[in-house]
Amino acid sequence: MANVATKFGLSSGGILGVPSAPLISGKNLFPPHLSLNGGTFAVTADTYYCYPIYIDKIQSFSGTRCTNSGTGDSGKKIKIALYNDDGTLAKNFGEATLTGSSAVLSFASSWTPTRVGWYELRIVSDSAPTLYTMGNVTQVSSAGYFGLPVMNSLFGLIASSWNANYNQYGYAGDSVAGTYANFPESTALTATASFDGRGNACPAVCLYK
After folding, report:
1. 82 and 119 Cβ atoms separated by less than 8 Å
2. What is the number of domains present in the chain?
């Protein structure tokens, strides 16, 4: 989480500081720089996939979600937890066991944040289930992170100026090898690598109202 301020220096929540609308029942809150892209990805066992997520208002959440896609995932397990930006555990959402069919997995464990700010969602499996994925929506190469309205207005200028150097893929999250049985640790393991939003390599995870 130490690198969030650098990667998201222009953002203080919502889109460039503009607060998001309150969630209504059943709706999801994804990391602000990512969205569902329809891809799938076989996660690596015992790897923690870590995503910064900004919560810009105090509101209750019913839990967290992910979606598995494969029929060969029966019996595989997933855990999800949320950490504060200082690495301390904010919420353990528990564990789910996958069935042999595609399904949205709702980890129903209510949580209300005590502060506005950055958190980090972490997801891990004991095996290698195939999960639906997210991709970048706000990165323009090395220029920095922009909300979608800014992205739309600058796209033509940046693309024409940079030509082949334009790349819509940027930072998506971090990862670290851990131990499924030990997750979630009371203090987050320090990430050892980062990954971008291409190649359907970002297992989707979100909070939901």
Report:
1. yes
2. 1
Q: Phi first, then psi: what are they for 44, rounded to 5°?
A: -90, 130
pTM for the model stands at 0.80
- Residue 174: what are its φ and ψ, rounded to 5°? -120, 165
Give, in order, the Cα–Cα distances in Å from 62 to each of 1, 29, 185, 199: 24, 11, 22, 31
- Tokens 């650098």 sit on residue: 6
What single DSSP character describes residue 51? E
Distance CA 80, CA 183 (A): 9
Mean pLDDT for each 10-residue chunk of the chain (209 residues)?
48 49 81 84 95 90 91 90 95 92 90 93 95 73 44 43 47 93 97 83 91
Q: Are 7 and 145 in contact (CB under 8 A)?
A: yes
Say which residue the tokens 């839990």 belong to.
Answer: 63
Question: Residue 170: its pLDDT value, please?
Answer: 73
d(CA 198, CA 115): 32
Count of C-beta atoms within a 10 Å radius of residue 176: 17
The one-letter amino acid code at 206 reads C
CB 53 within 8 A of CB 111: no
Which domain range does residue 162 map to?
Answer: 4-208
